[in-house]
Design goal:
- With 364 residues, the chain is of the alpha/beta class.
- It is 42% helix and 15% strand.
- It has helices at residues 2-7, 24-35, 48-62, 68-71, 78-89, 106-112, 131-137, 160-173, 200-203, 212-215, 230-240, 249-261, 264-283, 312-323, 351-361, and strands at residues 11-12, 72-75, 95-100, 116-121, 142-148, 176-180, 206-211, 224-227, 290-291, 299-303, 325-326, 328-329, 342-346.
- Helix 3 (48-62) packs parallel to helix 12 (249-261) and helix 5 (78-89) packs across helix 11 (230-240).
- The two termini are 20 Å apart.
- GO terms for molecular function: kynurenine-oxoglutarate transaminase activity; pyridoxal phosphate binding.
Amino acid sequence: MTALANQYQAINLSQGFPEFDAPDYLKKQLAHYAASGLNQYSPSSGCAGLQAQIASLIQRRYVQTVESDTMVTVTSGATEALFVAIQAITHQGDEIIIFDPAYDSYAPAIELAGGKAIHIALRSPDYSIDWQLVASKVTSKTRAIIINTPHNPSAKILTDKDVAALKSLLIEYDLLLISDEVYEHITFDGQPHLSALADKDIFERSFVISSFGKTFHCTGWKMGYCVAPRKLSEEFRKVHQYVTFSSFTPAQFALTDMLSEQGEHVDELAMFYQQKRDVLVDALKGSRFKTLASEGTYFLLLDYSAISQLDDVAFCEYLVKEVGVAAIPLSVFYETPPGDKIIRLCFAKHTETLLKAAEKLCQL
């Protein structure tokens, strides 16, 4: 879709990355450390200072104490962390439950490890999880569950009831959890992010994965991390050392300073993106699209059933070529698409970009 957007000079609200740049302080520190000669391998599990700052952030946000040296592993992006966690726990024939619409790296990583992804489809408009259905899918081969909250692409977050049901399931069937929390600091309307880190019983069987790229608008740096109990971290690191070995050293020092000196950025992120969500939602009120509730992330789903009977892939192609706006069809996130007429927009853009896109969409 980004290639099509470039080809047709369309406004690109498709691929999930910010239009704006990383904070100036972070870029300055990156340049400083690169110029200072810190350009060689870092320790495989991450620079000690960054590990300590991650542990401090977890303590501040979730009131959970983790050992920075044994439980925190810095990775080359969250996607690497997801891949490594899956490889570390999946044996031949194991089943791992994932929820569609799902981030597209989950199933291939499971299959590469010799496992099988068990897809459970969530439906519009609420994309809620039927935990009784989940329990019915658990077999003797079930190894783990992957959750994603806040959720890409539905923009939903887990509730207290969801967490309680998940916890009960993990304990009853002795399952592991991979918790994809890359949008952890982007929740709206005062709703909290319910992290697997915040519950001791859940965390003891979890890999919790996050992304500096999402938090600091630097997706191209490919910097993330995985937090897990000591024994799970040991297994995680056995794989990690043969995938990337270590991650971008100057960026680790720059991120350490950013967390230490400008930690307010994390606390302000939710309101920053909520304002962008509201700009786009308000600008679309005069359109024939139905906007679905965006509870977190920087995505907004639109139902276009009042506008066209085209399938979502064809409709997105039409939007790019004829309307001048690029979006993502939701069906590509499903193993078996449900046939909903839903598209995803990314609002991590400048206000003028959002208003121009909305103006075009309101003409349909």
